From TrEMBL:
Name of the protein in question: ACT domain-containing protein ACR
Keyword Ribosomal protein belongs to the record: no
GO molecular function: amino acid binding
Ranges of residues in domain ACT: 111-160
Role summary: Binds amino acids.
Keyword annotations of the record: Repeat
Length: 160
């Protein structure tokens, strides 16, 4: 069972600015796959206008109609495709084999601490840089200190 790796995630660009782009995912199914794919799409500044999900419990075919958010600058479609591919189970092994194998341990969570003076927009800038580096931000804590500084703590995992 398997399909060419190029056909797992297909992104069709829109022909007109009023039309959505079409993102198609065709891979083995796993629990929570739809949520993972939606989260990745939303992290890239896209709005999901419509979705169609078909599955038989082993294989799934998902189509998303997406529009770039008006505030987003530019969508990196190749990075989006790479991230969506990384969320899909491998097509080389059957679904049955994947169900029998032990579940992998969760990726390690790293802590990035940033001490700075309170600067407007810095939290957003750091968030954008981490996303461009394909790091997944699990949680952020921003704590002001009495001396006017701010401690921003980013709990991150590798997106790949």
């Amino acid at each position: 069972m398997g399909i060419p790796w190029d056909d797992v995630v297909v992104i069709q660009q829109r022909k007109d600015l009023s039309e959505p782009c079409i993102v198609t995912v065709n891979c083995p199914d796993k629990a929570g796959l739809g949520c993972d794919l939606c989260r990745i799409i939303l992290e890239f500044g896209l709005r999901i206008t419509r979705a169609d999900i078909s599955t038989d419990g082993r294989w799934c075919y998902i189509v998303f109609w997406v529009l770039p958010h008006p505030a987003s600058v530019k969508v990196d479609w190749e990075s989006l495709k790479t991230r969506l591919l990384s969320a899909c189970p491998s097509c080389l092994f059957s679904h049955h084999f994947n169900q029998l194998s032990t579940s992998p341990s969760p990726p390690p969570i790293y802590l990035l601490k940033v001490w700075c003076l309170d600067q407007k927009g810095l939290l957003h800038d750091i968030n954008e840089i981490l996303c461009n580096l394909e790091l997944i931000i699990q949680r952020v804590k921003a704590m002001p200190t009495p001396d006017g500084r701010v401690l921003d703590m980013f709990f991150i995992t590798d997106g790949m």
